[in-house]
């Protein structure tokens, strides 16, 4: 990711089509967001350039959310804002994300509904 004057973020997901929707909303708000596909890639990207925010798909394969949040805290001087989304039918997974320490946890449908209006706060602007 190139350095930018404004806030930026990272998105952990493996859905390129959904990511393009999120990155388009970020671009429209004057922000940048980069997609990473694994927890390891996310942590490497955070260490390279601390983001203002991180967006997580709680259903990402291999995600250890409590472990990821612990490692994020250790890797950053200032903890980025963490917004998580997932399937509304898996309320236990969303509840676990809240308990793990995510700043905002939303069902995917609500995430989409709020995307354009909230992307700035999710990415720390």
Output the keywords:
125 residues, alpha/beta, Rossmann fold, 5 helices, 5 strands
Number of helices: 5
Kindly report the CATH topology.
Answer: Rossmann fold
Q: How many beta strands in the DSSP annotation? A: 5
Mean pLDDT: 91
Classify the helix fraction into a percent range.
40-55%
**CATH architecture classification name:** 3-Layer(aba) Sandwich
Protein name: Response regulatory domain-containing protein
InterPro entries: CheY-like_superfamily
Folded structure, characterized:
By secondary structure, the chain is of the alpha/beta class. The protein has a single domain, classed as 3-Layer(aba) Sandwich (Rossmann fold). The protein has 5 helices and 5 strands. Helix 1 (16-28) links the parallel strand 1 and strand 2 (32-36). The model is unreliable at 1-6 (pLDDT under 50). This is Response regulatory domain-containing protein.
Per-chain topology:
Elements: E1 8-12, H1 16-28, E2 32-36, H2 39-48, E3 53-57, H3 65-75, E4 81-86, H4 91-100, E5 104-107, H5 108-122
Parallel strand pairs: 1-2, 1-3, 3-4, 4-5
Helix pairs in contact: 1-5, 2-3
């Amino acid at each position: 990711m190139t350095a930018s004057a404004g806030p930026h973020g990272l998105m952990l997901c493996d859905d390129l089509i959904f990511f393009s929707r999120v990155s388009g909303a970020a671009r429209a708000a004057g922000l940048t967001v980069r997609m990473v596909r694994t927890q390891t890639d996310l942590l490497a990207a955070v260490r390279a350039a601390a983001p203002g925010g991180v967006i997580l798909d709680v259903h990402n394969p291999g995600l250890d959310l409590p472990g990821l949040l612990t490692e994020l805290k250790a890797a950053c001087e200032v903890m980025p804002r963490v917004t998580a989304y997932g399937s509304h039918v898996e309320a236990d997974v969303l509840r676990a994300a809240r308990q793990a320490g995510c700043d905002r946890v939303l069902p995917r449908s609500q995430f989409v509904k709020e995307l354009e209006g909230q992307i700035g706060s999710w990415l720390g602007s």
